[in-house]
Amino acid sequence: MSLLLNNPEALKKMRDEIDTQVGNERLLEESDLSNLPHLQCVITEALRMYPTTPLLLPHESSQDCSVGGFHIPRGMMLLVNAYAVHRDPKVWEEPTKFMPERFEGGKGEGKLMLPFGMGRRRCPGEGLAMRVVGLALGTLIQCFEWEGIGKEEVDMTTQGSGLALAKAIPLEAMYRPRQSMLDALKKL
């Protein structure tokens, strides 16, 4: 939500997509998510920029090898820094800029994305997490008008080290029910 408040054009595009695909007679449902590609792009871009776990689970080198010119002996414990990989300028154009369109139409395919880990230790809850976040964020956008407090951008400074990455300053925002959604909200 913080990234969307700082990027009103992405927020408007997502709201327009939801209004077109779902309408305002009913609430967003899980079956709608596959018809909301911009919503999926926003979530993927947010996870690229701010992975919840910047350091992935440790892996152990099963044999001697070389990575990036460094010798890695067999048995060495390895940590992957997903935060750094997701912001590598050799891979991502303008890596610190929020650009959901970088994932439109499969454009981001083939680029290393690790918000849920990789290999055998990849998070088994990835599908569930993406659906829950999609439903939650999509419903918040569908049902409410959002705006930041004041004219300044939302501070995206993070804090934490190792296993978790959180915003240093909690999000403060104003919201109000969208007039077009009042009937649907009254049915809750």
Automatic annotation (TrEMBL):
Similarity section: Belongs to the cytochrome P450 family.
Protein's UniProt name: Cytochrome P450 81D11-like
Organism listed in the record: Elaeis guineensis var. tenera
Residues involved in heme binding: C123
Compartment annotation: Membrane
Gene Ontology molecular function terms on file: heme binding; iron ion binding; monooxygenase activity; oxidoreductase activity, acting on paired donors, with incorporation or reduction of molecular oxygen
GO cellular component: membrane
Gene3D superfamilies found in the cross-reference section: Cytochrome P450
Signal peptide (UniProt feature, chain positions): none
The protein's required cofactors: heme
Main location: membrane
